[in-house]
Design goal:
This protein has a four-stranded antiparallel beta sheet with strand order 3-2-1-5, covered by helices on one side. The protein has a four-stranded antiparallel beta sheet with strand order 4-6-7-8, with helices on one face. The protein contains two helices and eight strands. 32% of the residues lie in helices and 24% in strands.
Length: 176
């Protein structure tokens, strides 16, 4: 049986071909790693902002459920940033509920601006509206978090709470 010449030559790759493929992979990795690092930092910042939004929304829902004021207190502005939800004491036969605390990732976020008018305490009334004394601007409370905390370029996310108690996140259009 006679084998063709092209079949004999196609048994593997040359060293030069393997080196070219490795060089292309190294170039793609060198370009891709910084992009993935930025992507993970953005996701950590978004997660921290969602955690703040969830804490505020949960406090509002608890205030409506119990028809009593519920406060969210910013305990620490320096890493680790922490919040604590303070609920009213339930009726006597029910056991007391310990305050819920939230600690944010210190490398992901730092506060850029906090609600100075409220003294770091955000209180929702039993109707779900902000119980902070007027006059309040629109939006009533704006917190700005930025991250990454240890990076040179920082992105900012706003967390707005209206007088009616609605909480929303405003992310930047152009990420750095």
């Amino acid at each position: 049986m006679v084998q063709s010449a092209s079949l004999l030559r196609s048994r593997g790759f040359s060293l030069l071909e393997l080196l070219v493929v490795l060089a292309i992979l190294a170039l793609m990795t060198a370009v891709g790693i910084p992009w993935f690092m930025k992507l993970s930092q953005r996701q950590a910042l978004k997660a921290a902002a969602r955690e703040i939004e969830t804490t505020l929304a949960a406090a509002r829902m608890t205030a409506v459920k119990r028809n009593a004021p519920v406060s969210v207190v910013i305990l620490s502005l320096t890493p680790p940033i922490s919040f604590q939800t303070i609920e009213p004491a339930p009726p006597a036969p029910t056991p007391t509920i310990p305050p819920r605390s939230v600690v944010l990732n210190a490398n992901a976020v730092r506060f850029f601006a906090t609600p100075a008018a409220t003294g770091g305490t955000i209180t929702f009334g039993g109707d779900g509206r902000l119980a902070t004394p007027p006059p309040l601007p629109t939006p009533a409370i704006r917190m700005i978090v930025e991250g990454p905390a240890n990076g040179t370029v920082r992105n900012q996310i706003q967390i707005d709470t209206t007088r009616g108690g609605a909480v929303r996140i405003i992310t930047p259009v152009d990420w750095q």
